[in-house]
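Could someone model manganese (II) ion with this protein?
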Amino acid sequence: MPITTTPLSPALGAEIHGLDVARLDDADRARLRAAFLEDGVLLVKGLADMSPEQQVELSSVFGECAIHPIPTIRLKGHPEIIVLAADVAEGLAEDDPAREEVVGQIPWHSDLTYTDSPSRGSLLLARVVPPELGMTGFIDTAAVYDALPDDLRARIEGRSAVHSLGPIQEALKSAARADDEMEGGDAPTFEQVVHPLVHVHPESGRKVLNVSPAFLQSIEGLAEAESRALIDELVAFATDDRFVYLHQWDEGDLIVWDNWRTMHLATGHKRKHARRMHRTTLAPGRVPGELAA
Ligand code: OGA
Ligand code: MN
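Reply:
Sure, complex below.
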């Protein structure tokens, strides 16, 4: 049966139907790649039994797997996979109020914009899901660019911005605490990098608003206050409800995203509930910034 797609939400994305990960043929691969380019965010349901090897193989349909630069969160024995698993409530008394605290929040971002070459995309598989919260939000930043008012567009065209992991390092640590499943060790530190505020997607040719708010520090060539104000204005515009799809996970859901034209966030979930995600990272190949207008 051929793979088919249906719209995922009014804002963006597609759901894939009829995918058999154990039996992928060339027509399936072509269909998946076309949907990836067309829709930016793809949901596949019912993959709870998929092995780490199969996740890596499915990832190879979309690109080459990269090894994530933070070794602490890599899955033991499968370095192409990272584990996202927030601190859980083990050892906390039933009535400890800390059990109700929300953990694992990650603000809006595109992955790895704190490096020179942000990943091509990712495949995120829900292994263990909490009964409430624990959602992931997605925004199509090519659609955001298209919707920008002319004056705002004119103010950012040709500008570049500084990105760094810096302030978010702690949030990432709590979103992905090392445990027995992970490699452990020390997380590296990253130098700040510069990316264009608007880049041209090398495969679609579309312009994309490249803001990655969690990592975006300042806009080059503007005074501090002006830079802050422009960032706030862009982020407020881009994160308007009309652009957002919030995914409520079922176990075995897998979402693929084009990291060069989307951003995402983790809402976090209550500490008393476990949540465990397995993610592969697609190598950049060509960096979008190289082709920026
Ligand atoms: C990621 C990520 C969010 C989530 O895997 O890059 O940001 O909800 N995940 O787990
Ligand atoms: Mn991410």
